Amino acid sequence: MKRIYFDHNATTPIVPEVLTAMMPYLTEEFGNASSIHAFGQSAREAVEQARSSVATLLGSRAADIMFTSGGTESNNHAILGAVAAASGKNKHVITSSIEHVAVLDTCRALAKSGIDLTILPVDREGLVNPEDVQRAICPETVLITLMLANNETGAIEPIEEIGKIAAEKGIVFHTDAVQAAGKIPIDVENLAVDLLSISAHKFCGPKGVGALFIRKGTQLAPLLYGGHSERDRRPGTEDVAAIAGMGKAAELARLTKRAESERLRGLRDRLELGPLERVSHSWVNGARAARVPNTSNLTFPFIEGEAMVIALDLKGIACSTGAACSSGAVEPSHVLMALGLAPEDARATLRLSLGHQTTDEEIDFALETIPPVIERLRLLSPTYKKPAIA
């Protein structure tokens, strides 16, 4: 059976160019990047070249890029580090109800320790209102953390407008750009962010490596102690092979994202239109918002999402009900609930996310496969009433 992968928001396959860039540092170029001899200097050169490539993708200085183990660590370091470094006894943090759990759970942990936390609502399209951010700011606010693109719906938040608000108030502003990097243009200057998180495996790089942009002058307390790596910001021996792979993935994303974005947007729109035309009472969540070009979130009421995922997998189509980090959760998606969906509708949702190897032929196969699978599952559902034939 030919298998089709529509779950690129969970992870992406490493492209051959990235693997080629990594291989020398898994074999003969094994030096520690902190060593001063030739072996170490070769490793250091690879790390710094990758740092420059990531910085170019984000429109930042190379010195402002810190490598991490991935998006979760980058988010944790940004949030915990910024709050710990802020002065004052009473501190206040602002976030939103549709953030990834790597942000929400970190903010909630701070709230348990006594930090005042505001979780802003979103509208039906999943967007934060900048005026709500403005109203939530108080003298004790030390951090605003809002994602750039949502991992479930693909909706792009008004980060540039919110960044200006934060800058005017002198508040540290962090954005989780894990689902945006490599898909849409990112310029940290235009966004006016102080901290920005990305993860390599979301744009065809290896797992286990990410980066945090830290604007010069931003105060950030360390999470770990024990060495001078990453300019004294993150101790530990660098994973040179993974970092080299991330650098190559960033370079490729920068060179191809415009053409690839247009291609994927066309495929995504076609993938959405087919089921909407053929399956009654279905819709796209966040359809009226600006979205990253590869992501579609479709609700098909009267069916459990897990049943749809299993049934489609048996047909050769891999997709998800939402964030991979929340797979297996009994509760409906907190993102879709924040958009105003009823719990049963939030559970009846598929996330289809496309990638560089997605083809027209795969979209054709999905359009032939998905509608009849949905109709068959609905006929098995005790809550579905088949429309009467006129």
Question: Could you explain how this protein is built, in words?
Answer:
It is a single chain. The protein is α/β, with parallel strands linked by helices and 390 residues long. It has helices spanning 16-22, 38-58, 71-85, 101-112, 130-136, 159-169, 188-191, 229-232, 240-278, 305-314, 334-338, 343-346, 360-380; strands spanning 4-5, 65-68, 92-96, 116-120, 141-145, 172-176, 195-199, 210-214, 283-284, 295-299, 317-318, 349-353. Strand 3 (92-96), helix 4 (101-112) and strand 4 form a beta-alpha-beta unit. The mean pLDDT is 94.
Helicity, as a percent range: 40-55%
- Which runs of at least 5 residues are low in confidence (pLDDT < 50)? none
- Order of strands, widest sheet: 2-8-7-6-5-3-4
Major sheet description:
7 strands, mixed
Rounded to the nearest angstrom, the distance between the terminal CA atoms is: 39 Å
Helix-strand topology string: EHHEHEHEHEHEHEEHHEEHEHHEH
Strand content: 5-15%
| SS-derived structural category | alpha/beta
Computed over alpha carbons, the radius of gyration is: 22 Å
Count of DSSP strands: 12
Mean pLDDT, to the nearest integer, reads 94
Question: How many H/I helical runs?
Answer: 13
Shape descriptor reads globular
